[in-house]
Specification:
alpha/beta; seven-stranded mixed β-sheet; five-stranded mixed β-sheet; 38% helix
């Protein structure tokens, strides 16, 4: 509650302010900093005229400080956290330690954020987390620190801003990396069956399915699967398809675009041998990395590269490589939606100034070079950094990393506030087609009905 000072106190405040203005106070000097030109050419320019942040600033590194960090949603291994965040920050600011909060796997984000106050959040700005109120609106800090938003890739920053459109246009995060899709393939399986590897040419989904058929077979009791596309949720990202209509709040599956996705997935499921004799149909990352019975898997970069490096450090290696992710014939030249991994500040943090300075460093050329060289696509406009992609992460040595950049990713669709809760209905539809022989139209109809019922329930439990 604001107090109303009397007229005498008001006069004292005005007098003090005038004296401070006339005396100039302590002032702030203009510092010389190195940055990237706004066009993103990668050339280093000297920003000698950049103004110092205004207001009372708590300088990062002036005092010994521990900032806590919590990751929810995107894959972010402990090795990646240490390599990309904790070590670089401590090296630049020896007085500063970034400490990761690692709750039990069964603990929900809501439970973590209601019992702890991590200063920095690593997320994909989901509507589920927005509802917790954990995100600080960064607009004030962006202005306070004169942060140059023009350096951020539009595909990344526009998604973040779109997530809060209609909620006051707050800015809840800054992009950390652009998570793109690629096609991982096991060269040993291709060699085993004498099939040529995928090339740097982007395949159509039809071509990929035909190639997968040649590699789906059972040998010596091992069920080899030729092509895994991450089911309806992953395949729908080829066309940027939402699950729930943004305007009506109803299921958005009864469209020609979703029909294409359902029909293609049904075709994949019907490849003889795709569904294992024991009924396994939902082939995952572990099947590719650990069981090593998947020939090709379309998946996120972050979903695989970090875990593959951890596996390598555990002494498990095999002969794999990457190719451009396929797409529908009329969509060639584009890949899938780019998921945006972002860094945010907890609205309850007691160290918001210091935390924002961490974010500033992570989005500097130096910080983004570190993540690029360790297997993540930068979020800033600087093509030179992409040339260094994967240079420091052992698991990517010898891989065809240039295939990461074949094709243009599209911006991720707006995630409706109910999308996370109703995605299970897409998994059920996929299982119905894979296991129970459900036809495409029936699968779409049943999923649509289930989603619409869920929406009505969610309206009463979590609101809009």
């Amino acid at each position: 509650m604001k107090m109303r000072p009397n007229r005498t106190i008001n006069m004292l405040f005005v007098t003090a302010a005038l004296l401070t203005a006339c005396g100039g106070g302590s002032g702030s000097e203009i510092e010389k900093e190195q940055g990237t030109d706004q066009a993103g050419s990668g050339q280093i320019v000297e920003a000698s005229a950049k103004e110092e942040p205004s207001g009372n600033i708590k300088r990062l590194g002036d005092e010994k400080l521990t900032l806590t960090f919590y990751s929810s949603g995107p894959t972010f291994t402990d090795v990646e956290f240490k390599t990309m965040i904790a070590d670089p920050i401590h090296q630049k600011y020896p007085n500063v330690t970034i400490e990761r909060i690692s709750p039990a796997a069964t603990t929900t984000p809501e439970e973590v954020l209601s019992t702890q106050t991590p200063d920095i959040l690593f997320t994909s700005v989901s509507q589920r987390l927005i509802r917790t109120g954990a995100f600080e609106d960064l607009r004030g800090l962006i202005k306070k620190f004169n942060f140059d938003e023009s350096r951020l890739k539009p595909i990344a920053y526009n998604y973040i801003k779109d997530a809060t459109k209609g909620r006051g246009d707050q800015i809840y995060a800054l992009p950390f990396n652009v998570n793109q899709h690629i096609l991982y393939y096991n060269k040993d399986i291709f060699d085993k069956f004498g099939v040529p590897y995928p090339t740097e040419k982007q395949m159509t989904w039809e071509e990929a399915v035909e190639l997968g058929k040649q590699l789906t077979r059972t040998e010596n009791g091992v069920n080899y699967v030729g092509l895994v596309v991450d089911n309806l949720q992953g395949l729908g990202k080829s066309l940027g398809l939402p699950y729930v209509d943004r305007e009506t709040g109803q299921a958005a599956l009864d469209t020609p675009e979703w029909l294409r996705v359902f029909e293609l997935l049904k075709q994949i499921y019907e490849i003889p041998g795709y569904v294992a004799p024991d009924g396994t149909w939902n082939w995952t990352r572990d099947h590719f990395m650990k069981d090593q019975n998947i020939a090709m898997r379309a998946a996120w970069l972050a979903n695989m590269v970090g875990p593959l490096e951890e596996l390598r450090q555990q002494g498990v290696e095999f002969n794999w490589d990457i190719a451009p992710v396929p797409n529908f014939e009329d969509q060639l030249g584009t890949t899938r939606e780019a998921q945006i991994h972002s860094v945010s500040i907890n609205s309850q943090s007691k160290h918001k100034d210091e935390a924002f300075q961490v974010l500033e460093y992570l989005l500097s050329d130096e910080g983004q070079r570190t993540i690029a060289r360790n297997g993540r696509v930068p979020a800033i406009i600087n093509p030179e950094l992409e040339k260094e992609y994967g240079a420091d992460i052992p698991v990517l040595q010898g891989k065809t990393v240039q295939n990461v950049f074949v094709g243009t990713p599209i911006q991720e669709h707006y995630q409706h506030p109910y999308e996370a809760e109703i995605s299970i209905r897409l998994t059920e539809a996929a299982e119905g087609m894979a296991i129970h022989g459900l036809d495409v139209n029936s699968a779409i109809r049943q999923a649509t009905e289930a989603i619409n019922k869920d929406v009505e329930t969610l309206k009463t439990t979590i609101g809009q």
